[in-house]
């Protein structure tokens, strides 16, 4: 062992020196060189810092730098996040997105252009004017549709979601709600009264007929039967004296 190499190192180092820091790392840790001013020292970390990617070898695990425009990367040629001012597309960092794609400033990625999509039109509403469906001849009817997919920044904008057209209805008077309700209640009361009156009259009629029938039956029981009067014409018939 070199005189400047120590075996009792701290911070995950397997071997180290006072001047260069870690020279090798314990198993499963990554070795990376950090610059402090004009000096570089070795450190051992459980994962590579931002701007580096890890590679594993049989003898040592190392952290290597990503490309200059990458913030984080999986390999040197495959970025997972770009630095400010660049947009990520297929593992690369670009200043401008390819044709057919647009820059997403929220995710800093190149994404597909999304156009607006709407649902089918609804049926036309009843012909109305000033919120009423009566008391006029010409009015308007309306139909609507909903936005199913909002467009992206470069996508086709959404068309109108409402349409209106003129309409003609048969002229009729509007019945006031309060007056109509009052008339319906009065008709219902009068109908109930008429039904009650007819019921009472029918009951009285049945009672009177029953009373008359009972009275006739009682009279028949109390009066004696009348004898049949002889036929005067038979009694006064001439007697045949020819014999």
Protein described:
The radius of gyration is 56 Å and the shape is elongated. The protein has helices spanning 177-222, 232-235; strands spanning 5-6, 13-17, 21-25, 30-36, 39-45, 52-56, 61-65, 70-75, 78-82, 87-89, 92-94, 101-104, 109-112, 117-118, 138-144, 147-149, 162-168. Among the domains are: 7-65, Hormone Receptor, Insulin-like Growth Factor Receptor 1, Chain A, domain 2 (Hormone Receptor, Insulin-like Growth Factor Receptor 1, Chain A domain 2, Ribbon); 75-112, no CATH class; 118-168, TSP-1 type 1 repeat, CATH 2.20.100. It has a 3-stranded antiparallel β-sheet, with no helix packed on it. Strands 4-5 form a two-stranded antiparallel sheet. The protein has 2 helices and 17 strands. Strand 4 (30-36) and strand 5 (39-45) form a beta hairpin. It has 243 residues and is an alpha+beta fold. Helix content is 21%, strand content 33%. The longest helix is centred in the C-terminal third of the chain and has 46 residues, at 177-222. Residues 171-243 are annotated as: Disordered. One of its GO terms (molecular function) is heparin binding. Belongs to the R-spondin family. InterPro entries: Furin_repeat, Growth_fac_rcpt_cys_sf, R-spondin, Rspo_Fu-CRD_dom, TSP1_rpt, TSP1_rpt_sf, TSP1_spondin_dom. This is R-spondin-3.
List the helices and strands and how they pair.
Layout: E1 5-6, E2 13-17, E3 21-25, E4 30-36, E5 39-45, E6 52-56, E7 61-65, E8 70-75, E9 78-82, E10 87-89, E11 92-94, E12 101-104, E13 109-112, E14 117-118, E15 138-144, E16 147-149, E17 162-168, H1 177-222, H2 232-235
Antiparallel strand pairs: 1-2, 2-3, 4-5, 6-7, 8-9, 10-11, 12-13, 14-16, 15-17
Protein name: R-spondin-3
GO molecular function, one term: heparin binding
Keywords: Disulfide bond, Glycoprotein, Heparin-binding, Repeat, Secreted, Sensory transduction, Signal, Wnt signaling pathway
């Amino acid at each position: 062992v070199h005189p400047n190499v120590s075996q009792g190192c701290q911070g995950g180092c397997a071997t180290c020196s006072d001047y260069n820091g870690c020279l090798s790392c314990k198993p499963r840790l990554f070795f990376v060189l950090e610059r402090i001013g004009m000096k570089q020292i070795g450190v051992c970390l459980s994962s590579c810092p931002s701007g580096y990617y890890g590679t594993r070898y049989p003898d040592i695990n190392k952290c290597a730098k990503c490309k200059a425009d990458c913030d984080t990367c999986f390999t040197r040629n495959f970025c997972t996040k770009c630095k400010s001012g660049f947009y990520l597309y297929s593992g690369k960092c670009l200043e401008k997105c390819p044709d057919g794609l647009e820059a997403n400033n929220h995710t800093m990625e190149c994404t597909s252009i999304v156009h607006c999509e709407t649902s089918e039109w609804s049926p036309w509403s009843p012909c109305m004017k000033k919120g009423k469906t009566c008391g006029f001849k010409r009015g308007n009817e309306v139909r609507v549709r909903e936005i199913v997919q909002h467009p992206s920044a470069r996508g086709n904008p959404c068309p109108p979601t409402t349409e209106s057209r003129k309409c003609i209805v048969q002229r009729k008077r509007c019945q006031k709600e309060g007056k109509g309700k009052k008339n319906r209640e009065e008709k219902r009361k009068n109908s109930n009264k008429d039904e009650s009156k007819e019921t009472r009259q029918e009951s009285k009629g049945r009672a009177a007929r029953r009373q008359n029938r009972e009275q006739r039956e009682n009279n028949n029981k109390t009066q004696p039967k009348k004898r049949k009067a002889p036929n005067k014409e038979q009694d006064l018939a001439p007697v045949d004296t020819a014999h």
